[in-house]
Every structure is written in C-alpha cells, then in structure tokens.
Amino acid sequence: MTKPLNILFIASESVPFVKTGGLADVVGALPAVMASLGHNVMVVLPKYGDIDQHRYPMERYFHHLGVWMGDTEEWCAVDRLINTQAFPVYFIEFDRYFKRPGLYHDSDYNDFADNPRRFAFFSRAALQLCIDMGFNADIIHLHDWQTAPAAAYQKIWHWNNPIIGKAATLLTIHNVQYQGIYPAWHLDYCGFQMENYTPDKFEDNGRMNFLKGGITFADFVNTVSPNYAHEISLPGHPSGMAPYLTAKADRFSGILNGVDYQEWNPAIDPRIPATFSADDLSGKIICKQELQRSFYLEIDPDIPLIGVISRFADQKGLDLLAQAIEAIVTDMRVQFVILGSGNPDLEGFFGELPARYPGKIGSYIGFNNDLAHRIEAGSDFFLMPSRYEPCGLNQIYSLKYGTLPIVRATGGLLDTVEQYNEMTGHGTGFIFWEPSADSIYFTTGWAVSTYYDRKSHIERLIQNAMTQDFSWKKSAGNYLDAYISAMEYHKGLK
Ligand code: ADP
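# adenosine-5'-diphosphate complex -> structure
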C-alpha cells in the first residue's frame, strides 16, 4: 500500500444518519473502506434536525467554531459521534440552518431559500474544523453541489494554510442535474469575490452555480459510473457541464459506486423473512410469499412479481411507468409492488393503484428501508425505467438478490446490467433503449414471457446475477488512484 493518507470527507448526507439518495450510501460506505485499508479518515456532516440523536448519541467536541462568511463571522458548535466506527464523524451544529425538518426542501418540495448560505457555510465550517483540530488532510473529498464550494475555499482562502493548504480536492458528482444555482446576491456571504464570478467559475447566466465552480476549482473530478461520465461530457448534454468537464478531461473519470454487501446481502440480511443464496434459493420463495401476503396480492409462487423502489422524480421515468402499468397488468399475468415518494401526482397515482387492481398491484408511498430490503428479496424482477441514472444502486442490489433488473440503457445501468441473450441464456437482465411507455410495456412483456416460457434461462440469469461483484473493494482502488492523481496535480507534478 502507498503511505496512509489523511482523508477528509465533507458531505451533506450519509447513512445511517440521514439519507435522501445514493449519495448517502456512498458516503456511508467509502470512508469505512478507506479506514479499513489503513487510511486516516474523518467525516463531516451537518447536524440536521432530522438526525435521531437517541440512536446516534453525540458528544460536544467544539463549543465554539468561528466561520467567516463574507464579512460575517458565524459561530457554530461541533459534535462528534460517540464512536461506533473506525473513524470519527463530526456534525456541524448551527440551528439557524440545520435544525428544521428536511434536508434541502420543505414538505411541499420547495427548495429552502437559504440553501446557498446553508451549504456554503457548511463547506467552510468543515474546512475550519479540519484546521482547528489540526487534521493535516492529504485529500479533501467533496460530494455534489452542496460541498463543491469547499474546493474553491481551499484554493482561494486556505492555499497557504499549514494544515489544509497542501490538500488536494476531489469532487464527486453523484448527479450532474443538481447544480445548486442561486441568485448572485448570495456571492458576498459565500465569500467569493467578483473575480470568481466569471463564466468559467461560479457565474452561470447571471446566477451563481455551485457545481460549476467546484468543477473548476477541484483538482480532480469524478462521477459515479464510466458510462455516465461519457454521457455528461457529450456536447449538448442538458446539464450544460460538458465544456467544463471536457476542459479537464485528463482529471475527470467515472468510478462505479460499490455497494455495501454487509447491508445488502440476502445470505445475511436480517430484514428479510428468510435468507437465501445462489446455492439455495428456497428462502427467496418465502420472501416472495411474504411480500405477496403483506400487499394483499394473489399468493402464487408462479406469478412473476416486479418490484419498484424509487424517488418519484422526473429522472426515474416513473411517469412513463404510470402510462404503461395498467396495460401491463391488464394484458399480462404479473404483479407489481411499488415503493416510493416524491412527485405528488405520482404519489397519488401509484397510491391508488392497489384499490383499482386488487391482488395485482401493491404500493407504499413513503420512505421505508426495511420494506426496500423485502421488495428486493421477494421480487422476481426489478424495474428501473430511468431517463438518466448516474450509477443507480437498486439494480446492483437486485442482482445480488437474484431479482433480475429491467432497465433503460443509460448511465450506470448500462455499466452494471448485461443484456439477456435469448440464444445463449447469457446476461443478467433486460435492457431497453427508448424512454417511453411502449418500451417499458414491451420489455416487461419480454421478461414476463421469458419467465413463463424459458424457466431454465431465468434460472441461469439468476445465477449470473447473484455472482456479480460490485463490492467497494474495486471501487475503493479506483478512488485511491483518483486521490493520487489529484495530489500529483495539486503538487504540480501533472
Ligand atoms: P438515487 O440516489 O438517484 O435516488 P439510487 O438507486 O442511486 O438512486 O439510490 C437510491 C437509494 O435510495 C437506494 O438505496 C434505494 O433503495 C433507496 N430508496 C429510494 N427510494 C426509497 C424509498 N421510498 N424507501 C426506501 N428506500 C428508498
């Protein structure tokens, strides 16, 4: 191994404390893997009101941490998780910004108006914490627009700081569509002078774009799958980030997310009714039966059951599923269990479907991790009709649970699912290209008819799927390479 690195993770969410999406899974897993490889790791998160402090007890670490935001010095406190992990986790406590329900928006999905201030402050506070505690970071690993400003702060304000001035910054883009674009009048508070408000840095059509500034200032940028890295670099990609990413093409890569097989492994999963493995699938039959029972579906091991777990956001293509699902359950002998929340229209639509198609469709509107495990374990297929998908985790979990993914050919879905070959029985799932209700209908039909007519192929696909390995070990190696490249660039060696 190379010499142990000091790695500072700054992120806006992490399992098990708070989670809205895949970013939290990554930040929950990667630091632990790095620590297990002998690196010195610390993680900094905001102390949101939503964090359950009974479950995750904390102790006061700093009573007063002064953080300069423009001309204002804000005073916050820092708590540390009473340690259950191999590395410390710190929480920035600043009630004005974080002690409210929700992470980024209110219960009506309205973005908090002070988000630029909240996350600029958090980014700066995390760096200040690192300085005040004397953590000589080699690498500062940032995640998405919320902490992208830290890449700029480190270069603009702390470049000669003895503690963090030498640190290299890596910015991981988990979803390029979320950029943190806000009115320019926040610039002063955020501490970026006009010289940084230029089109190659934070300025974006008269507004301030956090992600873009982060891309420019970071020493290395990555996103969460090779195929998504390719897609978002293509000229004309709707995110508008392609020119800035191609400008640093030699310092931009796609690194597939790993998954936490301690958490998502049917052989040891305590959340599912019966465990199972590729060698013994009898537990999966029990899981399916329990899932059918709990959603009042017809209990029959021979009816294919399709699981869906998703945010109801435009990205996920569930509006397309909404257009196709009634025809699917009318024309085919198939069942659905849908878990998700988000868009209120889709919540209403999917929430009412079980009453309209009793015995065929079950749904649960909300966020429920235990249920997510039970759906992965009890379904035969897992549908992800995403318009775009930076990496996607659920299809990877599905593979491990022998639940064959039906996915659109986009982003990380294409990197992780291999198309079923009818001639040979090779592959791990069913892939379609067009983001349309018709494609969902016909590809689901293909999967369902394979289920009924080619049992031996389905068995083979399940074996193929369950033996895929997307553990963090491989991804961690790729991240270490990215850290080294970032450090070399920062030192002027590249
Ligand atoms: P994204 O980060 O875009 O939402 P990913 O597939 O990368 O999509 O990760 C989603 C994660 O969130 C998975 O771990 C998935 O199981 C979980 N998830 C999404 N919606 C729900 C829900 N309603 N209840 C429980 N878990 C959910």
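# post-check
The chain is about 40% helix and 20% strand.
Residues 272 and 288 are 10 Å apart (CA to CA).
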